[in-house]
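Write out a sequence, fold above all:
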Amino acid sequence: MSQSVTITNNQTVELSRIPLLTYDDFLVFNTGLLQNESNHCVNYFGFPDKGKLKLVCCVANDGNATLAVSSTEVDATGVYPSFTARQSGFHIFERVLHESFGMSFHDHPWLKPVRYPADRFDKSSGVRNYPFYEIKSEELHEVGVGPIHAGIIEPGHFRFICDGEQILHLEIQLGYQHRGVEQLFVSHKKLSQAALLAESIAGDSVAGHATAFANLWEALSGFSATPGMRFARTVAIELERMAIHTGDLSAICTDIGYQLGSAVFGRLRTPLINFFQEWCGNRLGKSLIRPGINPFHFGQALAERLEELFSQYERDFDEIWKEFHTLPSALGRLEKTSVITREVAAGIGAVGMAARAAGLMRDIRTTHPHDLYSEFSPITIVKHHGDVYSRAKLRHDEIVQSLYYLKRIIRKPPAEDGKPLPLSPLKPRSLGISLTEGWRGEICHCAVTDENGNLIQYKVKDPSMHNWLALAVAVRNNEISDFPITNKSFDLSYCGHDL
């Protein structure tokens, strides 16, 4: 018997077709897959099913664009050997299982709370008694940052252990404002409510999350997106990538005191997000992407307006980048600062920019393409030094690349869609998976339906779930004064993590 069922991105499968393994076989199979660097776990979650806790693991093969889906059933109150002890990239998934259902692992190296949801298994576990790692020493000191980030006013706590100015250890504890997003997908029965929820998961990744949701819902409904829908979703994702990358370059300049770069990159971000306002009435792109319909047609007039915007943007962007990346004082702060090696990135399951800056080829647009990406075969940009400068340079190169892609795409906008066909009910007793490559990295939405086609489980994975650990590892042995630019170079999401 096969140990998994093989599907592709934005495909559904009946639950009965997913092989049900013993837990030991389930563990050996999935951790064995990750011994091949072409494989990585895109989601691993559980849900109650007929008195048992059903576990589903989804492992992507980046070489052949497939997803291996397997399952097992366990007693939620039992104690089991952990995946994490064999492959550390599973750590965050098992911590969520432990927190949500009480499932325990006798050999998990870091079995701590993740989010403190209202329906967590252990109600006595709370933010105030979080078990921070400690080193007993009269020579070392701790530095706490938070619990509210002073810049974006989002909940987040950083606890440093330092030897003078040198960081020995950083522990990142989030979960102050758990919003219950996944449960809201199940409890809200209207598609309009779910669509609004999806685009609100992370305010800087509206297009990425909204596209993942729309593609997943359409797959579960047996609906094929029109050319106009696929066009709009691809343009929105790439325009969002350009806007956020440009803003992040401004933030990096701010943190090293380079005011010219901060001002110019910041100014260049504004017309990009303002274009979303012209297109759909919202600067973040909300209401633009919906399952089964293209609410805002992208016609020739918008194409010409965007081409004009690009010509102005490109000139100033090239000029300020040339100034920035040849400035010795800037390079002195960025080069060799907060390095994450390729081996570490692979081991902890890093995705997106954090992985690509360290030499790993992790890009859903290339490995598991969707919408228009399967038509123009994007090329993944990879850096190899894993430092702050690599992450900044990667942003520059991806902006240039997105600019090139968008210029090609908008030359011939598709004709306006006709009257949309109604979406069919969701397939019963099925699992669907949708992957997109947001600007930050790999976004994964998974849905499970019951016998009547109603959602019983909706799992969201923002790339930040993987990459917060990468940030904590990268700052080790750096000076604490370098933490702000390191944090900006990753630019991870608090709300995307604290679902």
